Each structure stands twice: as C-alpha cells, then as structure tokens.
Amino acid sequence: MNPQQSLSGRILGPQGWVRGHLEFLADGRIAALHEDACAPEHRLILPGFVDLHVHGGQGVDIMEGGESARTVARAHARHGTTSLLATTMTAPQGDIEHALQGIGAVMAEPRADEARILGVHLEGPYLSSRRLGAQPDIVSRATLDAVQAFSALAAIKVLTLAPEIPGHLALIPELSALGIRVQIGHSAGSYEDGVAALKAGVAGFTHLFNGMPGLNHYEPGMVGAALAHAEYAELIPDLQHVHPGAMRAALRAIPKLYCVTDATAATGMPDGEYSLGSQRVLKCLGCVRLATGSLAGSALTMDQALRNLVEVGLSVEDASARLSRNPADYLGLAERGRLQAGAWADVVVLDTDLQLQQVWVQGQSVSLD
Description:
The protein is an alpha/beta fold and about 375 residues long. It has 10 helices and 20 strands. The protein folds into 2 domains: about 5-45 and about 340-365, Urease, subunit C, domain 1; about 50-330, Metal-dependent hydrolases (TIM Barrel, Alpha-Beta Barrel). Strand 8 (about 80-85), helix 2 (about 95-110) and strand 9 (about 115-125) form a beta-alpha-beta unit. Helix 5 packs across helix 6 (about 220-230) and helix 8 packs antiparallel against helix 9 (about 315-325).
C-alpha cells in the first residue's frame, strides 16, 4: 500500500528522537518512519496520549449515559488524547448499567474526530467506605457474576477495588483470568493487604497516593506496597493531587508508572458547578472540589500533563512514555502508544514550548477548534 499522509519534524520513535518523516497508510496505521536531516526541528511529533482514567469533559459526565461518552471522547481528542478508558463512579447498579450501555454504543460506532474508547475503567462500587474520596457511599462487594454482567454491556479493561474487603482477594485471580487489570484503590488496607493482592494478581494502583492512607514508616500501607513492589501504577500529575516530591519518588520507584487525568465534566470548562456522578462539584482556579473542599477528580488534560511532568524535571521522552507507551503496555496494546511501522497512526504534534498543534487519531486529523 502507498502512504497517504506524511508528517515531518523531530519524531519520537522507538529508539529516541529522529529528524524525518512519519508516513501513514490509508487504513490509519503507520507505514514507516524515514530519517531526513532536513526535516524541521521546531515540530515535535509524539505518540498520541493514552488516558486510562476519564470521568468526563466539556461539561458532560460519563455517568449520564447516552451519547455522553462521545462528547467526552471528542473533548479529550482536542487535547491530544487519542485513546482512553471511560471511567465510571460508584452508583446504584442501574445507574452503572445505564452508563455502560451508552459507552458500549459509542465504542461500537467510533467517529473520526474522537479519541478511541478502548473500554471501561470500573472505579467502584467495590471500594472501602473508609476511603471514598469523591465517591458516594454506595459501595458493595464484588462478585464474578456482577462484573461479568457489567462487562457484557461494555468491555471492562480496568477494575478498581479495595482488596481488604472480604471476598475481594479471592476474586482477583478470577478477574485477572478474564483479562481485566485489577487495581488497588480507594482502600484503607495495610501494606500486607497490598502485598497479598499483588501476589494474587493485582496489576496496579489507582491514582497512587490518593484514596489511600499516606506512607508512614511504621505502617507503610498501600503506598508502601506500591513503592516497594509495583511495576505499574497510575498517578494524577495536575500538581494538586500529589506534591512534586512525592511524584518524583514514585517515578523512581515504580518502573512503568503512568499518568492519568482523572478528568471530570469540568475539564475544558470555565469555573462553575458540574456533575461527578450523582454529586455536584465546583471548579475554581483549576481545582475541582466537593462542597466539603475535598478534591474531586480534576480538570487536567493530557497535553497539560505533559507540560507538568517536564516542569517537575522529566525529559520530554520520559514524560511521553508515562502518557503513551506505558499505559498502552499496561493494557497489552502493542499497536498504540508508539510511533513505529504497523502501529495505529495516533499522533500529536507540538511546538518547542509543548503547545499542541495537531492531533491524528488512526491517521485522521482532529480539529482543535
């Protein structure tokens, strides 16, 4: 097949930066990466961002169901997210089913100007009532039948649970066997609970440091288990949820730590009141909070996450890996999160100030207006 499109600039390929051309095929995949010393240096071409924790955007919450997931996917594509997991909230079973039905319908009919929805991150209702954060107190215990029924509506790729809840530890291997990445989150469990869950097959940690007790040298808790043993964990790099020093500690300790937005309906919107599941949240000065003042998700976008990671000292290459390759690898998706022949042409183009210039989802340009 002949290439249908070409982008030129400094390209972040599998082996590092290359000045050259990135060629796309008509089927939306990358044909080749060619070196060219004359290619412009002022255009940085990176893999599209892969966000595994997205609740909303552009005034819309995933839990609204219907076409809400489409609006959210479109909103995040304009900030460089080329694929994502639609993320649910703790809610009554019927509300979760309604949201999943909408997500499944959007996944079945993707459109060119949207980030691809890869599946669902089920964040709740299998959480600890002691570490709810912004989740409502409608928790329940997980069962294999319940999870399979949810996944029949829209494929669950990641599931957050508190492993200390009776019955959850034994369920982890069964969920893992279904191809679901089980994560520890919204948990009051101990370090020992975390280690046992990792041995049972837990794959990662949900928004590390948040929704769990802080690290204490006598009682290291879930944070200690993650820093000591985890290969993967997600972290929110909005510079509000986690102090930069704690971010750097996690980045050193967890080899394939990746970053997520935990974005809410307030993302891309002016200050004001928005929905987060059944709750009302207030966006003010870049923060999203409950009426109590507690943080409630974020208004972060992935392009801003890139700039924040560079601000705290990461190279562009390392920051890109945390936003693209690592989350793709976590889901076992070798065709996303990297710029190489055969991968999907999910691409972001930035200037040298890391401001977004262009976005391509599976070889199709996304309007940034």
